[in-house]
Amino acid sequence: MPTTYIDLCNQVLRRLNEVEIVAGDFPSVRGVHALVKDAVQSSVARLNQAEYSWPFNAAEHTISLVAGQTEYTWPVNYKIADWNSFQIQKNDSLGVGYKSLQFIERDEWYSRHRDADYTAGSQGRDVPDFVFASHGSGFGVTPAPNRAYTIRFRYYQNFTDLTNASDVCRIPTSFDSVLVDGAMYFLYMFKDNIQASQSAYVSFESGLKNLQSIYINNYTSVRDTRIQF
After folding, report:
1. Prediction pTM value
2. 3-state secondary structure of 128
3. What is the pLDDT of residues 177-204, one digit of tens each?
4. Using CA atoms, how far apart are residues 140 and 159, in angstroms rounded to an integer?
5. Is 86 helix (H, G, I), strand (E, B) or coil?
6. Which residues contact residue 140 at a Cβ distance below 8 angstroms, ignoring those fewer than 6 apart?
7. Do the beta carbons of residue 197 and residue 189 sit within 8 Å?
8. Which bin fits 68, alpha (ψ -120 to 50), beta or left (φ > 0)?
9. What pLDDT was estimated at residue 83?
10. CA–CA dist 118, 142 (Å, integer)
11. Mind listing the pLDDT tens digit for each residue in 78-107?
12. What does the alpha-carbon distance between residue 177 and residue 186 come to, in Å, rounded to a whole number?
């Protein structure tokens, strides 16, 4: 079962040999308990910011396109997209099967497709073939859809702040010790205990590198994407 915010805080308090927090008091704690809450928040944020594509932040999103609309906004807490995953979903009533979209640069849309998409207006042009990063927080498809096709894609989420005692951390429970080490580092930094903070930092960084080795730096193969002319 994933670890809750209060569980992480109490693990840090046990490390400090301090009294643990009870759920009813969690929103209004003060002193060292409030400091521990902040330290756990900072530790979770630091670990999540260390990599774009932690697997525990992986998500999938489905969106219905609008005829004539080329650009769309990202889902809440979006961090980075897997551009190879964009796919039109099969819909017999719309006469469309599964279709993977090819990624193109935004400049290519500007130069080769935008004028035609805008000229088509609310009628749209056809079933989209391409996807691109829009100018801002979102993505675009082209040709502009002529019907309400459904697109599914995969992406990685940003972390969300833990607020309530029962809020669950996405980071696997088996790595609670890494988060506790990180919280100890930030806690000692807050208290200006440089020597203790440096020791905790070494442990935290070591645990972080272990996570990266397990989840990120584990390529089974490398593909050559060079184009031969």
Report:
1. 0.83
2. coil
3. 999 999 999 999 888 888 889 999 999 9
4. 25
5. coil
6. 70, 71, 72, 106, 109, 131, 132, 133, 134
7. yes
8. left
9. 97
10. 11
11. 999 999 999 999 999 999 999 999 999 999
12. 14
Environment class of residue 6 by beta-carbon count within 10 Å: exposed (0-12), middle (13-18) or buried (19+)?
Answer: buried
The pLDDT-based confidence of 147 (bands split at 50, 70, 90) is: very high
Please provide the size of the chain in residues: 229
Per-residue confidence (pLDDT) for residue 217, from 0 to 100: 76
Asked if omega into 143 is within 30° of 0 (cis), the reply is yes
Provide the residue type at 197 as one letter. S
Residue 6 to residue 162: CA distance in whole angstroms: 9
DSSP conformation letters of 133-191? E-SSSEEEEESPBSS--EEEEEEEEPP----STTPBPSS-GGGHHHHHHHHHHHHHHHT
